[in-house]
Structure prediction request, 557 residues.
Amino acid sequence: MQSAISTFDFTKVYKLRHGKTKVAVSSLDLDVCQGEIFGFLGPNGAGKTTTIKTLLGFIHPTSGRAEILGIPVDRPEARIPVGYLPEQPYFHKFMTPVEIISMHAGLSSVPRRERKDRVQEVIHMVGLSEIAKIPVSKLSKGQVQRIGLAQALVGDPKILILDEPASGLDPLGRRQVRDLLLRQREMGRTIFLSSHLLSEIETVCDRVAVLSHGKLTAMGTPGEIKEDSNKTTVTTQGLKAESLAKVDELGATAYYSEGDNIITVESSKLYDLIDILRDADLPLTSVMPERESLEDAFLRFAA
Amino acid sequence: MSHILILARLTMLENARKQVFHVVTLLTLTIICASVLLSFFTLGVQVKILKDLCMTSILFCGGVLAIALAATAIPGEVESRTCYPTLARPVTRCQLVLGKYFGTLFTVYIGLAVIGLAFAALLVGRHALDWLLVLALGYALLEVAIIAAISMCLSTFTTPAVAAMVSFLVFIAGSAKIGYFRPLVENVDNPVAKAMVKGVYHLLPNLESFNFKDALVHRLHVPESYLIQVAVYGVLYAALALTVAKYAFSRKEL
Prediction:
């Protein structure tokens, strides 16, 4: 299947004053498959926005190339299947949400006879119905963010490029955005999602890429990029000094929390620990393999 | 084409909310309406002065509005970041430039139409309305189109303030090109300076050609071939300025 978004050896170097330069992105090779939610991660200044701006033709690559559905991004046709939500969407303050979304429907070449229905549909989808006719100047940041989402969706795009879609939203709004993204994936849309909310990324993304100092440091499913710590956490109750000494001999660490004894041991020594607990006639409340969180993986790759 | 119209409409709505548009239009309208106070002249002289004053006001108002609105149209869009969602659509930079240009132009034309109607009403009241008014106003609109194109072109290279300032200088110099520049070219002896002055002379738009105030005031005959030549010159000059603006804006990183 053709890639939805791909970059080939894409490099962007900014020219600064006094002949200095700054490499924003270096030799980036990305391949986003159709129909997936692709998380694009990286600390501030890693080159995420530069990559997104290049994909949308706002800036030009210094070398390499980028394509959307096989069309080079410097051609306007490449943006026909794209819906874009900027990090902090700005709209003309005198316009109302319905006017803004109608205008973007027009710019996305939504046929005139379908435009009104389509605008109403996305307004309802992002929860803007009650404020659809209030000027932007009177709306909150979260409400403007919803307008941004609506304008991105109004052209019925095959690919959504979303830069921090949950920015400025309350927990309920974030939940709604997450559900919306999952619904869009079910509809077969590709979503390229840049966000700092790692828990959101972990929940919704099929694959993620981590960018650090302009370079791709990891790419794969969240499970693939998270490291297995090779440790297991066992929970028991009533651990006595004698058993604790044996646990220490295994090289395991134990602590007491709210009536439970929580023991972390190397996975290879798990059965030895279980034997100790069985000999002492202690209950085995839970056995959990310890896995790195996406946040830990992000910090490791971004370092 | 539909993209250009959508962007032009948006630009008009935006411009209609700008203070400079209302202030300049109202000021010009006040000057034109105040010209009824010229009743101490005989009717013939009164009409001549009225035509002269009103046409000068219209040309100045059109020029100032075109400069003020066109110089801020594209930089304003970039600075406020409202261009991002727009250019993320299959909208070319050329379409954005043209949309902004025509939106600006139509806004100025609306202002000038109101002023022109007031002027026409004054002439009707003095039984002095003739077709030369349509001609003079039509070419004033063409002059405004050139000034707006120059201002927009400069705004893609530099800041809006510098673009507005340089455009105003071009407006003044272009309006005085034949009367003051030509003698200057002839009087300079230094060959380098002469070449430079000549270069500026040829680069400047000949805005005097669009001024049919004298024809209107003195009811002079204007040959049709001259009118066609001037119209073609105006359209080509504006198109050239817009082409440069499109080229400069396309290269710009947003």
